[in-house]
Amino acid sequence: MPETLTIWRFTDGKPGHENQSLGLVKALADQAAVSVQDISVRKGWHNLFNWLLGRCPDRPQTRPDLLVGAGHATHLPLLACRRCCGGKALVLMKPSLPSAWFDFCIVPQHDGVAASEKVLLTQGVLNPVSVGEKRADAPVLILLGGPSAEYAWDEQGLVEQIAALTRSGETDYLVAGSRRTPATTIQRLRSIAGPTVKVLAQEDTEPGWLTSVLAGTREAWITEDSVSMVYEALTAGAACGLLTVPLKKPGRVAQGVKSLVRDGVVTTFESFQQGRALCKPETPFNEAARAAQWVLAHV
To answer: For the segment 3-16, what is each residue's pLDDT rounded down to a tens digit?
Structure first.
């Protein structure tokens, strides 16, 4: 491995994808000397032509040791730059192109890919969350997703669950929506919120807000459609509960959630209502650090 690992990080502008690559890069920086250059990509036929011709028009001056991308839109630009400038290509997902075209893949195990010397399986997607000092007065976080390919959205049922959690008024709660959360859900929650409950829509928060808040959070409740936020809360060392939303089409997200429940890592709302305490990870849950260690052993 070189004395300083030069990384080109390909970004497609999607927060979920950027969080994955940022999580890996931060973990690599914790374990080795790195130099990072970000390259923004956009969809278009020019990516195919650049790859075929071995062109990388937006390349930094320093040649890469490692090219990292998350999201299908990063695949061809990443391969084009490797062909032009060298380095090893790493994607943080099950690629839409043949996996043999990449040097390494880091893939969530619920995607159904077999592990190999070139493929590392992780529990959930990587994220940049770290464990911070847990404040005794930190509010309980309630994080909301929204309708998706696998899950429907029962607004009334969700409001009832949140009302049951916050009814006592003895603990402060912070409810935060995401880009998928319907505006009507935020409005209804605000209409029933008591003095100990604060409700934020996505537009009320800034980029990176959730990462910083999770670091000091002791307890979080998350709608089960939002498996990425579940893994972020676990990485932060928070005790994690799941709010129930209707399953529409069983798939990899639901499979991942089911495995967390089966392993006793998270607590369902139903079992909590029956007296079960929220689960807290017994050991540090940091897949980004594990992935970084694996990458450094291979570059």
So the answer is: 899 999 999 888 88
